[in-house]
Design a protein that fits this description.
- The protein has helices at about 20, 55-70, 145-150, and strands at about 10, 25-30, 35-40, 80-85, 95-100, 100-105, 110-120, 120-135.
- By secondary structure, the protein is an alpha+beta fold.
- The protein has one domain (about 10-150): Thiol Ester Dehydrase, Chain A (Roll).
- The longest helix is centred in the middle third of the chain and has 20 residues, at about 55-70.
């Protein structure tokens, strides 16, 4: 599976948890930000041969929680409180899908973020959400920073 230049495979999660079933995902540092992507495989598709909307929604949630955590330098587990999605176009089998998380604001207990998901450069999903801090800072939730700094 080919990925665009500069992307590094993100470390997997414990086998059997949801995130491990969706990946692999790839990340690339972009200044203070990050791009996260995946290649649409057959297992990600609906019966029409397009990337399933649930896969795109799950990807957006991972981009917003993990990516915004990285951008905001929180090192915290983020619990999804609200996730809004607008499906804009289909993503075909084999397409490279990527998104860049954007932190809108961070309060004492909540992060608000958004992203635009594109397939082969064409916008396919717009997502925004609010995410509560699930506990104190913890190095387990700083994996993306460590990966990108080690590259």
């Amino acid at each position: 599976m080919q990925v665009p230049p500069g992307f590094i495979e993100m470390p997997g999660h414990d086998p059997g948890i949801y995130n491990s079933l969706l990946g692999p995902f790839w990340a690339r540092a972009e200044g203070e930000g990050v791009a996260i992507g995946f290649r649409v495989e057959r297992r990600h598709c609906n019966p029409a041969g397009q990337c399933h909307g649930g896969m795109l929604a799950g990807f957006a949630d991972i981009v917003l929680t993990g990516g915004c955590n990285h951008v905001a330098r929180l090192s915290r587990f983020l619990v999804t409180v609200s996730l809004t999605q607008d499906f804009l176009a289909p993503a075909a089998l084999g397409a490279w899908v990527e998104a860049r998380p954007e932190v809108l604001t961070v309060t004492r207990s909540t992060l608000f973020g958004q992203c635009l998901v594109a397939a082969n450069g064409v916008p396919v999903l717009r997502a925004s959400g609010s995410f509560r801090f699930g506990g104190e800072p913890d190095p387990r939730f700083d994996r993306l920073r460590r990966l990108l700094e080690g590259a």
